[in-house]
Write the structure tokens for this entry.
Amino acid sequence: MRETNINSYPTWFRSSTPYISAHRGKTFVVHLSGEGLESENLEYIIQDLALLHVLGVKIILVHGARPQLNSALENTRLHKSTRITSEKDMEAILSIHGVLRSRIEGMFSAGLPSSPLHKVEIAVVSGNFITAKPMGIIDGIDHLLTGETRRVNTEKIHEILDGNGLILMSPIGYSPSGQPYNLSSAELASQVAVTVASDKLIMFDPNGYISDRNGEQLTEITPAEASVLVNSTSEVSSKNIDAMIRATRGGVPRSHLVSFNQDGALLGELFTALGQGTQMTESHHKLIRKATPLDLAGIIALIRPLEESGILVYRSRNRLEQEIDQFLVADVDGFVAGCCAVYPFDDQAELACIATHPSYRHPEYKL
């Protein structure tokens, strides 16, 4: 059972509300590896994904099956950690994915009886969303029925998501003639995230953080920085980090690595200022941008308490509207976490109206 400090709950819930608003209506592609499906926390992971769905997040869940396939296909051949899939292997792979998919569907469809979401009905939809092609011959080795993604049926995916369905994908794609191909689940999650223009790619990992060469856990990283570190991590984590790099460079605004071994890591990463994993963005400075009129309400919410306490000089809404071009904001998932005004004159500038949301005033947090 989860332990909850009832005294800290109101504070946590209030601080999470900006994220609830920011994530509503957004599309998240979530990758849960075969290792994650064997985790003791699987029930809680499904509960947390169900909670995101209830809060209005559109979810595409891609599952893996590497350890399950390794156990069933002891004599399978590998080439640079990629499985070479024979027709006989393909029969077993389809069977294993069917079992895993049914298990996941069952956990969502049972009404989550042991959770506060026991009365929630979630429509889990699977289907032939992926058109695949053979990987072909690499280094002189025919990979047979191991494939790559050729096309993602984005129209059908968006139709289901807009209809409040949760999409569950197995790493299987089909040729136009109906031939199934075995795909890498991490690569599939990355490609789907890019193709459907998702707002986030979330990779569940044993560790939950990308660490630097000194072993220090990183909460923020760019694809360029991650590329330097990827070869020093485990095989599972390397595949996840590679997927994050491809997705981020492909236009996905944010990719996240969270632990499937730590209960609540997903919610901690998405709904707290400090996070509980590693977030990847194309560049750190994109968190800071010029303000627009749409940010006005967020800026006012930040500065009014400071004005009322006498820390900041009062600025009317009319004045803020007129001077909005002078403002910079710290944008975290569409939420205005901080602001400041810059007034240039001659070769100098005045910095004013500096404010930070209380959730981001922790000394360890860095934008």
